[in-house]
Amino acid sequence: MSINIETDDGVVEVYLSGEIDHHSAGELRERIDEAIGAVTPQRVILDFRGVTFMDSSGIGLVMGRYKLLEGTGAVLELRGLSSPVKRVMRLAGLDRIAVMDGGTKK
Fold first, then answer.
1. How confident is the model at residue 105 (pLDDT cuts 50, 70, 90)?
2. Could you tell me the domains of the chain?
3. Where is the STAS domain (predicted)?
4. With contact defined as beta carbons under 8 Å apart, do 79 and 48 qualify?
5. Structure confidence at residue 1 (pLDDT)
6. How many alpha carbons fall within 13 Å on the CB side of residue 94?
7. Neighbouring C-alpha atoms within 13 Å toward the C-beta of 34
8. Mean pLDDT, range 25-43, rounded to an integer
9. Taking a C-beta distance cutoff of 8 angstroms, is the pair 80, 101 a contact?
10. For 28-57, what is the mean pLDDT?
11. Which long-range contacts (CB under 8 A, 24 or more apart) does 62-69 make?
12. Taking residues 12-35, what's their average pLDDT?
């Protein structure tokens, strides 16, 4: 798993690649939370374009970042979702807490 984080003008963009599983999720959480804490963003974008595998730890990663941002007014956006990952995220209800692939929250 690798991660690249860019911050610019109130936006934190997180580019994920590789596998998201229980082994990698802890480090991902720490690095993303550190970037969010340093910037106090208006928008956080998690880009899954490079993700090749994701288990339930990926759902937990998204939910935890939502809880971190809750009450701040920041928007959580999920981009680059493959069809299977998007389906799993919708089944988990993440489309109600995050903007998915340029759409809107339900």
1. low
2. 10-100 (3.30.750.24)
3. 1-106
4. yes
5. 85
6. 28
7. 10
8. 95
9. yes
10. 95
11. 62/89, 62/94, 62/97, 62/98, 63/92, 63/94, 63/97, 64/29, 65/29, 65/32, 65/33, 65/36, 66/94, 66/97, 66/98, 68/33, 68/36, 69/36, 69/44
12. 95
Which is nearest to 17 in space by CA: 28, 26, 8? Answer: 28
User: Minimal CA–CA distance to 2: which of 44, 15, 13?
Assistant: 15
Alpha-carbon 31 to chain mean position:
12
Question: Which residues are bridge partners to 46 per DSSP?
Answer: 14, 78
Nearest one of 12, 14, 9 to 1, comparing CA atoms: 14
Spatial CB neighbours of 82, under 8 Å, sequence gap ≥ 6: 48, 51
pTM: 0.93
What is the token pair recorded at 10? Answer: 């109130």
